[in-house]
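Give me the fold.
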Amino acid sequence: MSKTEFWTRIDEPEQIRDEPWKMYWREWKTGSEAFEKFLHDPIGVLVDEIRVVQPDWSVTTTVANHQVGLSRSPICIVAMVVPEERRVYLWLYKHAPEASY
């Protein structure tokens, strides 16, 4: 099991700990069954994996480096969870195919 297989909360520097939002990150291997499930039902996966997220929340997603495509290579995902807005903002960064993490 990879150390990035689960969401890791980003709470450094200390100043962001008091913000009304929380940030998490993880990496996935694109093309995996778990990543495909995330693509097709992001809120369902987030509800299961990040405790504060609720099923009726909205998700806004941005994909960086998308020209690389979603072939079988790593993708880094940062999630900003904003309970006051009932929303999760996702930033997906697609690694180049030759990168392996």
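The first helix runs from residue 33 to 40.
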